[in-house]
Write a structure and sequence with these properties.
The complex is a heterodimer of chains A (about 500) and B (about 290). Chain A has about 500 residues and is an alpha/beta fold. Helix content of chain A is about 35%, strand content about 15%. In chain A, helix 6 crosses helix 9 and helix 10 runs parallel beside helix 12. The longest helix of chain A has 20 residues. In chain B, about 30% of the residues lie in helices and about 30% in strands. The relative contact order of chain B is 0.13. Classes of the chains: A alpha/beta (about 500), B alpha/beta (about 290).
């Protein structure tokens, strides 16, 4: 027996005897996530983070202090019983762990991978606070992923209540829509999910790349819905193919959930944004992911820019995804241009870390002033300004201030704009009677109910820019309210 | 849902007309709207095509497309009884139709197809419809009969003079604009360069002009922004703000540059496909 496994055995025995003291727990090193080699993965789409081994998972779980007040749960938008599932993993009860997680989260394999844990559950973790470093918190997300992946392939189909005769329409098959479909179907309603694209999964399919979230995981969740008897209709644009009013008055739907996402990319409104080679991150990632542009000429026909030097504008997860995708599509230099400093970046720490490992160059405190083109209208460069951080603004982050005369030209042939989305106007254009705020987001109450009877909404179309887990959380709330509404 | 082709006609060497089963689209569509189609349900390109007509009783829509690249070549290979991979729509804002008085409808090349339902709707709303159709040569002129039936006046021009007058469409358009009273509305659909010059012509006479833009597009629902154009100095998305815009406000020069974005890659895909089909053709006698 190696030293390592001997120590592990001792820890396990202590854990099971209830003798593991905080001192012992603090002494266990935070487990590193095994990952593909940084250089090798620059040319492959397969998943970067490989997942914990069972031994790593148990070691990491044993680092948890099992705090009585479980502050981590406070940080979780869907209130997963984190303390309990982590303890189950520490004890090697992996099946029990996943059962506990699934009480509150329907998509643990997804959330374990894409949740911004460092600003949610892990931010509150006592272990992280003790070491004064959020990176030293118990890796709850990785443990969640570990438990979820173990049950991959044996996707248990939730029980469905006897049919109620009520019909539910779910618009959009992203994370929110999936949760609403599952929860309302469980209550015995007849559920149809409408998806505008030719494949279901929403942002998890067109947006988040394979190397961060394998498509097979999303497909498995969709398959579970189908097995539950949820009908999934693709190529159906609610508002255009049928309006919400038609669905309810003519097609017999008793309740509707709108989870269409944000989906109207913002641009910088600077000179040169119409040049060939300027993309929204949505377009770039959709071409690359959903439309498989990476396989252009090898079974796929969707073209994408063949780039040498790429600038990505933004500092969020989508910007990281686009930059890392550009690396994989063969760009020699990928610059991430962000006008604040790295500290203010909204992206997950792990994505920032992975992007840097893969050679993405971080150009912080810089912002484009205009994009330069040649006579044919192709991008040939981007003029930028350097910035300093000034006083904090209303968001609490220090406001970037341009440094006069600091202009310089970045040599790029492709520019990807990843600065967020506005609300998609399609539902607003086609649904009179539905209340929207000034920014075009749907107005809902605490139960995600809109101004229209029987119509609920959640996710980005309500919150503006949100996350997978927030969309899921709203889906949960909405589905509960819809089930109650339909039971009247 | 199966998007079966119920009938197919070849209108010219590279232009095909198909009636496709898509009952929901057929029911919902209005003049000026488009669909996104693909010959392949899984991969392939998503092609935006304006709906050329519909039969809601039969549940079919009429699509007219030109064989220009791999995906359209694949579509051209399909026959009656075959099915398209998918049809999604109708998309875009419908044309604003009312009785304006006299409407001059200008169509060039394949643009004649999307013009047809708009011209028909304008006629039905009580307008006097003057149609100007242009093609490079006689063989490439499509839908002449349909336009002859619905128009109060039909002017045909060809670049080489093989049919109608030897002229480009702006010539008769200018003549019509000079009439008194001048037309109340012009609609121009065709190659970008044609729409640009039509708009320059009508602007001189202050005839309000609508154009229908067919830009590069991925989703068709506002999500990608690939279809963006500059209209009146502002960025607009063809899919959700259009496809029709005030032609006098559109920056056509920018649009033309954006349209060329993937020419080389598209050519590559098309050539690879042609080579592939020609090889198959040795056995199956299919040629393109």
């Amino acid at each position: 027996m190696t030293n390592e496994s001997k120590e592990f055995q001792e820890l396990v025995e202590k854990q099971q005897a209830g003798l593991l003291k905080p001192k012992d727990r603090f002494a266990i090193p935070a487990q590193e996530m095994p990952a593909q080699d940084a250089l090798g993965r620059r040319s492959t789409m397969s998943e970067v983070a490989l997942g914990y081994t069972p031994m790593q998972a148990r070691l990491e779980a044993m680092r948890c202090l099992q705090c009585k007040n479980a502050p981590c749960v406070e940080g979780c938008p869907v209130r997963i019983r984190i303390r309990e599932f982590v303890e189950a993993i520490a004890n090697g009860m992996f099946q029990e762990a996943i059962t506990i997680i699934k009480e509150n989260s329907l998509l643990p394999a997804v959330c374990g991978r894409v949740c911004p844990q460092e600003v949610q559950c892990q931010e509150k973790c006592t272990v992280g606070l003790k070491f004064k470093d959020v990176n030293q918190s118990v890796s709850i997300g990785r443990l969640e992923r570990f438990a979820a992946d173990l049950s991959k392939g044996c996707g248990a189909v939730p029980a469905v209540a006897p049919t109620t005769g009520k019909k539910v329409a779910v618009i959009g098959s992203g994370p929110g829509g999936i949760v609403v479909a599952a929860d309302t179907r469980r209550a015995g309603h007849e559920v149809t999910v409408f998806e505008a694209f030719h494949k279901p999964g929403g942002v998890m399919v067109y947006g988040i790349p394979e190397f961060r979230l394998p498509k097979s995981i999303v497909q498995e969740e969709i398959d579970v819905l189908s097995k539950m008897g949820v009908k999934i209709v693709c190529n159906f644009i609610v508002g255009r193919t049928r309006t919400i009013e038609q669905l309810m008055k003519e097609d017999g739907f008793d309740a509707v959930y709108i989870g269409v996402g944000a989906g109207l990319p913002k641009f910088m409104n600077i000179e040169g944004e119409h040049l060939v080679g300027v993309y929204s991150a949505n377009e770039y990632l959709t071409r690359a992911n959903l439309m498989k542009a990476y396989a252009f000429g090898r079974g796929a026909d969707t073209p994408i820019a063949v780039s040498k030097n790429v600038a990505v504008l933004g500092g969020g997860n989508v910007a990281m995804d686009a930059a890392r995708m550009a690396v994989r599509l063969g760009a020699e230099n990928v610059y991430l241009v962000y006008r604040r400093s790295e500290k203010e970046m909204p992206a997950r720490i792990e994505e920032v870390h992975h992007a840097k490992e893969e050679g993405v160059r971080f150009c912080t405190l810089q912002s484009p002033r205009r994009i330069l083109g040649d006579a044919g209208g192709h991008v040939v460069g981007m003029e930028c300004l350097r910035y300093d951080l000034g006083e904090p603004d209303e968001s609490g982050r220090r406001r970037p201030v341009a440094i006069k005369g600091s202009e310089f030209v970045l040599d790029v042939d492709t520019v990807i704009v990843a600065i967020g989305n506005d609300a998609n106007p399609l539902i607003q254009q086609t649904t009179p009677g539905l209340e929207f705020n000034t920014w075009g987001n749907i107005v809902v109450d605490d139960n995600c109910k809109t101004s229209m009877e029987g119509v609920y909404a959640g996710g980005d179309i309500v919150l503006g820019a949100a996350t997978v887990i927030l969309a899921m959380g709203q889906g949960r709330i909405a589905a509960a309210a819809m089930n109650q509404y339909l039971a009247r | 849902m199966s998007f079966k082709i119920l009938s197919k006609r070849q209108l010219s060497e590279n232009v095909f007309q198909v009636d496709v089963q898509a009952p929901l689209v057929a029911r919902a569509r209005k003049a000026g709207q488009f669909v996104i189609v693909s010959p392949d349900p899984d991969a392939g390109e998503r092609i935006p095509l304006t709906i050329a007509g519909a039969n809601s009783a039969q549940g079919t829509i009429r699509l007219i497309f030109q064989r220009v690249g791999k995906a359209t070549a694949q579509m051209a290979e399909l026959n009656e009884g075959d099915a398209l991979g998918y049809v999604a729509g109708p998309l875009g804002r419908p044309t604003h139709i009312e009785n304006f008085g006299t409407a001059v409808c200008v169509g060039g090349g394949i643009g004649i197809a999307p013009l047809l339902p708009i011209a028909a709707a304008l006629k039905e709303a009580g307008n006097t419809v003057v149609s100007i159709l242009g093609a490079r040569t006689k063989e490439l002129l499509i839908l002449e009969e349909e336009f002859r039936t619905l128009s109060d006046e039909l002017i045909i021009v060809t670049d080489d003079g093989s049919y109608g007058r030897k002229a480009v469409v702006t010539e008769p358009l200018e003549t019509v604009c000079r009439r008194s009273p001048k037309p109340n509305l012009a609609i121009a659909i065709g190659p970008t360069i044609m729409m640009k010059f039509c708009c320059e012509t009508t602007k001189k006479f202050e005839v309000p002009t609508q154009v229908s833009l067919n830009t590069i597009m991925v989703d068709g629902t506002g999500m990608c922004g690939g279809c963006r154009v500059e209209v009146g100095g502002k960025t607009k998305f063809v899919c959700v703000d259009g496809p029709e815009f005030d032609g006098h406000q559109v920056n056509f020069d920018l649009m033309m540059k954006r349209m060329s974005a993937y020419k080389a890659l598209e050519q590559k895909a098309y050539e690879a496909f042609r080579e592939h089909v020609c090889k198959i053709g040795l056995h199956h006698k299919t040629t393109i």
